[in-house]
From TrEMBL:
Record-given protein name: GPI mannosyltransferase 2
Subcellular location: Endoplasmic reticulum membrane
E.C. no: 2.4.1.-
Transmembrane segments: 100-119, 131-151, 163-185, 258-283, 354-376, 397-425, 501-520
Source organism of the structure: Chaetura pelagica (Chimney swift)
Record flagged with keyword Transit peptide: no
Top-level taxonomy: Eukaryota, Metazoa, Chordata, Craniata, Vertebrata
Amino acid sequence: SRQDPHLREVLRFGLCCRALTLLLQARASLLDFSPLFFFFQALFNLLIPDHAADAFSPPRLTDPGLWDLLVEQLLGGLSRWDAEHFLFIAERGYLYEHNCAFLPLYPLSLLTTAWVALWPFQQLLCLRSRLLLSALLLNSLFSILAAPALFQLGCSVLRCRRAAFLAALLFSISPANVFMAAAYSESMFAFLVFTAMWQLEKGQSWLSGLLFSLASGARANGIINSGFILYSSCKRFALQLQVGSGSLKKLPLVWKQLLSVASSALLMCAGIFLPFALFQYYAYVRFCDPSLEEPVPKPLLQLALDKGYRLPSTQGIPPPWCSQRFPVVYSYIQDTYWNVGFLRYFELRQIPNFLLAFPVTFLGCWAAWTFVITNPRHCLTLGLERRKSEEEGKPRAGFCSSAVFVYVVHATVLLVFGFFCMHVLTRFLGSSSPVLYWFCAHLLQEHEPLLWNEGTDGQTTAPCTKKPGQSPDSCREGPSGNPLMKLLLGYRCITPLSKCVLGFFLSYWLLGLVLHCNFLPWT
């Protein structure tokens, strides 16, 4: 970062946004230096009191001390909704069946940090308080580091540093911001996935596979990333076949290359599936073996009776999923506890959630449509055909670059699945795919005149599109100043489209903090 001013600015801006997020999320502050900050805290908590949500809320088994109460008061907003599951798993393990919907890498990271990095505070703070502090430290670290990883990925894929720079800055004010800050696995997942994608673009396939494997240990949708490994291997092999003549003498060499590519790709994909598969086996052993019983504290046992939560070996009767041919607890929990399934959320009472998901749904569809109509032949050939522009060394730059194809497909698959099977699309896409940030950066650069005069160096790649009125400088190397701050400070002068894009990011960034931290539903 010392050599790259853009990377330094991405880190600086990400750090500032994370600090502001934590300040707004805190319920009170001993360091009350800012009257404005105190005003916002009082306003949020008076106007929007905590919602009485029917969410997982286990009882505390130890009496909190003075410092524990202070930590809970400051960081209690980090433990809302699903965050309570992660904190409970880190503290008590997988005690209830529905806890198994949350994969173990993030809770293990919280527990390790609480016992190792925060070991000096064990006399002052109980384990839960240290877990909350661990969530603060880890999520801040991962969300800040995910932005430069996205920048590096964008430079490799978009071949347009200005677009990559703007996209990385947009990530710091992501609409899924609250889930990057709360005790959720989104920030860890985003960092691992963006870094893995970047390493794959650099040709570091095995390192990429390792990072993708770690990501699948954090979130179940990480197993979909095996498609990147498969596509990269297929594309590399297909392009090799198109180089040189098709002499029969080379046929044995082709088969040898095919076997080598296929075996390495399948091995890496198996590694990506392994953490998820191992956890399903762990859940099977824990909940389906009637001989395994462990003492359960009475308050937690009473909670299970009151709420209908299943404990391991409840009355010696295994749960229904244990008798399935492929006993996968994850899909059973999603189906039974959260009613996740095809068209199950298409109900009148879910209309508010669909409205909350509309902006990201619209942007995702628009991004896919823009790429398809710009690259129809590339989409029909699945990007496996060598293009003339690539042979001439002048590939198209920006969002419409041919290298974006696999990322658009990935984002579209997530979007279609999320739309028809669940309603948490904003954080689902915001932490899993770079396309949302790339496309919004593309819209701002293509249609915002305020950004057109920033280019200084010569153009090194072909422009993204050739629409009339488009700025010819859209992919030139710009100055290291913050273009996002330039747009925000000149908000009254920017185009309506830019106002809509920035308005979406900023409103969801702020509303998510206000609503989620007060136990109100958020996408």
